[in-house]
Write the structure tokens for this entry.
Amino acid sequence: RQDDAKAPAPLRPLLEVDRFHWPQGSAKLSDAAGSQLDELAEGIAMECRQGRKVVAMSSCRRGDGCTTLTLAIAPRLVKKGLRVVLVDADFHNPLLARRLGLAPETGWEEVLAGRLPLAEVMIESVEDQLALLPLREPVPGRTYDLGGQPDPAVSLAALKEHYDLILLDLGRFGKTPRTATTLPLPDATWIDAAVLIHNVRSTPQQDLTRTRRKIRDAGIAEAGIAENFV
């Protein structure tokens, strides 16, 4: 049939593990703030139902708990029946793979540079029913070699064909590099909506306001604010 001919070929990660090794920090957060995490998961699921399938978890400053909250919310989204892929998009401080007990030799950086296809760097957890698109941690003091014009939208468009929700661990939003770099800056060409994590203990209100303005100026919908370290 014509519809079948247009259907994309299945995207099957070539790397598979029995389960991810979830960090204690995410487990503690789930125990301490279960009802709030349930509300956040429902809000993200609503974004997905409205067609915003690429949702970024971001923060005002490094260390605000972006990765911890991403890993705390992901299992709840799976329990809602969503097929979820986690994507490490923190090009300055990638942590997702390490926090899940993994040390990949290659990651999304190889896809963005055109050296490998998506399936060869993705990792699937059978027990968790989650897929991961990691970033390999770069050599200290160096940035990724992504070629001339890396386009995250291409990878994410392919993921949209096979997953209900792409959950990005973005880290600090729109960090401006000190030197010229090809690292992609977040904008609406590849991110549909963002949840902004606010460390209420250390992040001033003016930083929160400034980051919210950056998200709006990038054309990205604000999916909510998650107050951390309350």
Notes: DSSP finds nine helices and eight strands in the chain. The mean pLDDT is 90.
